[in-house]
């Protein structure tokens, strides 16, 4: 928890995360910038999800919304967590139709930002 809070010492922090095994992070005394999302902390005013999503793309939407506000995501490498992607619901949360519906909704919602590199990364 202290490692997450430490990220918010950076004035432009919008999302705080920890190092994780998925990215083969190595524990070191460093906070790095980048879009990472496994275990995270956000400010209370940002801690809401668009109810149109069921369980796919809701976190992507929140990350992108915070990104558009000009705030950044930081990962504190002092703490490394074990993270197995898709371990709860499987790839695409086990529902390809819902994944496609949610992805299309995301793309329509943020159509004005389609040239943003993060938008492209999320929708490729």
Describe this structure in words.
There is one protein chain. The chain is of the alpha+beta class. It contains 4 helices and 4 strands; from the N terminus they run αβββαβαα. The chain has helices at residues 2-7, 58-68, 96-109, 117-123, and strands at residues 13-20, 31-33, 40-42, 72-81. It has a 4-stranded mixed β-sheet. The longest helix has 14 residues, at 96-109. The mean pLDDT is 89.
Topology:
Elements: H1 2-7, E1 13-20, E2 31-33, E3 40-42, H2 58-68, E4 72-81, H3 96-109, H4 117-123
Parallel strand pairs: 1-4
Antiparallel strand pairs: 1-3, 2-4
In short:
By secondary structure, the chain is α+β, with helices and mostly antiparallel strands.
Question: How far is the first residue's CA from the last residue's CA?
Answer: 33 Å
Query: Portion of residues in helices?
Result: 25-40%
Averaged pLDDT, please? 89
Largest sheet, in brief, is: 4 strands, mixed
The number of helical runs is 4
Q: Which consecutive residue ranges, at least 5 long each, have pLDDT under 50?
A: none
Helix- and strand-based class?
alpha+beta
Cα-based radius of gyration, to the nearest Å: 15 Å
Approximate strand percentage = 15-25%
Shape: globular
Q: What strand order characterises the main sheet?
A: 2-4-1-3
Report the strand count.
Answer: 4
Order of helices and strands: HEEEHEHH
């Amino acid at each position: 928890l202290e490692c997450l809070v430490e990220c918010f010492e950076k004035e432009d922090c919008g999302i705080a995360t920890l190092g994780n095994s998925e990215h083969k992070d190595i524990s070191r005394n460093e906070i790095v910038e980048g879009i990472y999302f496994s275990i995270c902390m956000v400010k209370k005013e940002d801690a809401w999800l668009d109810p149109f999503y069921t369980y796919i793309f809701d976190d992507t939407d929140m990350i992108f919304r915070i990104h558009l506000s000009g705030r950044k995501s930081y990962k504190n490498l002092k703490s490394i967590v074990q993270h197995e992607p898709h371990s709860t619901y499987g790839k695409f949360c086990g529902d390809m139709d819902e994944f496609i519906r949610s992805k299309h909704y995301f793309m329509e919602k943020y159509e004005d930002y389609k040239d943003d590199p993060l938008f492209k990364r999320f929708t490729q």
